[in-house]
Amino acid sequence: MRTYQLIAPAKINLYLEIIGDRPDGYHELVMILQSIILSDRIEIRSNGTQAINLHCNHPLVPLDQTNIAYHAAQLMVDQFPERFANYGGVDITIDKQIPVAAGLAGGSTDGAAVLLGLNLLWELGLTIPQLQQLGEKLGSDVPFCVRGGTAIATGRGEKLDPIQDLDNLWVVLAKYNNLAVSTPWAYQTYKQQFGHTYINDIAGIQSRTSQLHSGSFVQAISDKDGKKIGELLQNDLEKVVLPEYPQVAQLKEVLKQAGGLGTMMSGSGPTVFTLCQSQTEAETIKKTARQKIEDPSLEFWVTQLSSSGISIISEQ
């Protein structure tokens, strides 16, 4: 039975601006998304049956259709029934290293890995853009996770424009393992409080997107100017999450005071990160923050920005 093992990197948001409503119930966003080396490992193995079996080492990860990885496999079965009939079902094993419910696209990147793995296993020959198009059916972050790197994301996050890869910086991530923030709650609360600022005409949305493309943040990324990037970090969802979750607000303040280039919450949280120039600086900030907040439920990760999306590590 053939087997593929893949690396599925997490992502952080370097920039997240909510600019309007969408008819589909989502929000119109302008973001800069960034892959990081912190990754799950996914094994996809032909099992000689007609079943999709999902396994994971983390007790909080669901093993049914509510898991994006399972949903991705089912989508491929539905899209390519003849290949499924020829090649049969699969066992999908997730070695979960990305924290769960953290705002780091851990579920989305697993789904992206399943799309790519089945593309190889079933010899479909799909291109990256075709896989990204399939990924849109699974979730807003999945298309980005397929390719990874650094990209401007618009629409609900599925429209991607890759920009200069940023892989010269390190990052400290911190999250309380007993804390989760509902993404729908965060966006709905933002709409209630700041909906009066929304841009809802196409020309206005396009103008705001163009401003980011041609602005100082993208230039700083092109120049690999870590100091400037740290100064320009922005996440509109902090405006509603931090007042509601004082633990996250305190964590951000402690990390900020510990040093680094800039500190921000990723996505809807509750993970907070600090960008750093070096691994040494990152480890020092981690140590300082851990001494300031002595809470066994607070976990830290030190990793690096990455220019890669889903990648194959072995084929058997």
UniProtKB/TrEMBL annotation:
Residues forming the GHMP kinase N-terminal domain are: 67-149
Identify the residues that the record assigns to the GHMP kinase C-terminal domain, covering every copy: 219-291
- The active-site annotation reads 11, 141
Record's superkingdom?
Answer: Bacteria
Regions annotated as coiled coil: none
Q: Where does ATP bind?
A: 99-109
Transferase found in the keyword field: yes
A biological process (GO) of this protein is: isopentenyl diphosphate biosynthetic process, methylerythritol 4-phosphate pathway
Under Gene Ontology molecular function, one entry of this record is: ATP binding
Q: What is its EC number?
A: 2.7.1.148
State the reactions this protein catalyses: 4-CDP-2-C-methyl-D-erythritol + ATP = 4-CDP-2-C-methyl-D-erythritol 2-phosphate + ADP + H(+)
Print the keywords alphabetically: ATP-binding, Isoprene biosynthesis, Kinase, Nucleotide-binding, Transferase
Q: In which pathway does it act?
A: Isoprenoid biosynthesis; isopentenyl diphosphate biosynthesis via DXP pathway; isopentenyl diphosphate from 1-deoxy-D-xylulose 5-phosphate: step 3/6
Tell me, in a sentence or two, what this protein's role is. Answer: Catalyzes the phosphorylation of the position 2 hydroxy group of 4-diphosphocytidyl-2C-methyl-D-erythritol.
Family statement: Belongs to the GHMP kinase family. IspE subfamily.
> In its UniProt entry, what is this protein called?
4-diphosphocytidyl-2-C-methyl-D-erythritol kinase
Q: Write the lineage as a comma-separated list.
A: Bacteria, Bacillati, Cyanobacteriota, Cyanophyceae, Oscillatoriophycideae
Gene name on record? ispE
